[in-house]
């Protein structure tokens, strides 16, 4: 849940920096797929840009590990 946010954009990248998922929805879900294919096990980078209900913009980033 993203309480206190007005909007957000999330991007997920593979190890080569290729964009494999993006969404601009507070209720986003990533199913671990790129197109219709499951991504391989490994580390993926993510970046979230968000705006709070007070108008403050922030960017955060990190990694997620996919284990199959």
Description of the molecule:
By secondary structure, this protein is mainly β. It has a single domain (5-66), classed as Immunoglobulin-like (Sandwich), CATH 2.60.40.1220. It is 0% helix and 57% strand. The chain contains no helices and six strands. It starts with a strand and ends with a strand.
Pick out its properties.
0% helix, 68 residues, mainly beta, Immunoglobulin-like, single chain, 6 strands
Summarize the structure.
Helix content is 0%, strand content 57%.
Blueprint of the fold:
Blueprint: E1 5-13, E2 19-23, E3 33-34, E4 37-38, E5 42-52, E6 57-66
Antiparallel strand pairs: 1-2, 1-5, 3-4, 5-6
Report on the biggest sheet: 4 strands, antiparallel
What is the alpha-carbon Rg in Å?
Answer: 13 Å
Q: How many individual β-strands? A: 6
Distance between the termini: 25 Å
What is the residue-averaged pLDDT? 95
Using the coordinates above, name the CATH class: Mainly Beta
Model regions low in confidence, pLDDT < 50 over at least 5 residues = none
Strand proportion: over 45%
CATH architectural label? Sandwich
How is the CATH topology named?
Immunoglobulin-like
The total domain count is 1
- Alpha-beta content class: mainly beta
Helix and strand string, N-terminal first?
Answer: EEEEEE
**Percent range for helical residues?**
under 10%
Shape, please?
A: elongated
How many H/I helical runs? 0
Placed side by side, the strands forming the largest sheet appear as: 2-1-5-6
């Amino acid at each position: 849940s993203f309480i206190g946010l007005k909007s957000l954009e999330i991007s997920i990248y593979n190890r080569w920096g290729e964009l494999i998922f993006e969404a601009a929805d507070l209720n986003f879900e990533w199913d671990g797929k790129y197109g219709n294919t499951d991504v391989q096990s490994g580390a993926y980078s993510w970046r979230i840009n968000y705006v709070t209900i007070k108008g403050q913009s922030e960017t955060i980033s990190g990694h997620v590990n996919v284990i199959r």
